[in-house]
Amino acid sequence: MRFRRGRSAVSPCLLLMAISMFAARAQVILCDSSTVDFSLKLEERGVTRILTFWKEKDSSVYTAMKYYCSTRTLLSQELSLIGYMWDRAHETHVIQLHSVDVGYPLSYDDVLNRHIIAFLTRRKKQTRNESVERIRQIMLDAHVYASLDTLLASHGYHMKSIATEKHGYVTKENLQRLGFTGKERIPMPFMVWLGVEKK
User: Fold this and answer.
1) Domain segments of the chain as ranges
2) Per the confidence metrics, is the pTM higher than 0.90?
3) SS3 string of 135-187?
4) Which residues in 86-119 are b (16+ Cβ under 10 Å) and which e?
5) pLDDT tens, per residue, the chain with 199 residues
């Protein structure tokens, strides 16, 4: 994902100052916007984080949110910063989310670990032709993205569905890195959208 430059900003937010959850110094959150999206970008110690909201061109209400972090991490460790950026965005924009994208399970070791365990424990046998619907249902039932619950709840939302695309399998290296044998056959969607709604 690229942070677009060179477009005229339509947002009231040009520059936000924040006290980072990860450092005891003021940090600059840069904002960028177009007629359909609005992004907040933070660079900290070589790591880039971007929180983007989308809307329809003829609407003022942002209904989708995507979070990007340039390095593999734990989703649970990103929540404070996501929440802070979300709150800052909410100060200047109308946000009523229906969809959240924080990345696919391989982006976060805590999510990936739950994902692997879900497929090892919730299906009767490993198969080469796991249906997309079954993959989505296992992920939803196992609450693979459970780390997000507190953050979503703090903004009045809860997760109701999972949509996925571009499926493959977890590599042997990633399985072994988390302590598995490497022989497990675990489906992996490379695009994930979480359906959310107000409580």
Assistant:
1) 1-102, 105-190
2) no
3) HHHHHHHHCCCHHHHHHHHHCCEEEEEEEEEEEEECCHHHHHHCCCCCCCCCE
4) bebbeeebebebeebbbbbbbbbbbbbbbbbebb
5) 444 444 434 344 433 333 344 443 335 577 888 999 999 999 888 899 999 999 999 999 999 999 999 999 999 999 999 999 999 999 999 999 999 999 999 999 999 999 999 999 986 655 666 799 999 999 999 999 999 999 999 999 999 999 999 999 999 999 999 999 999 999 999 999 999 999 8
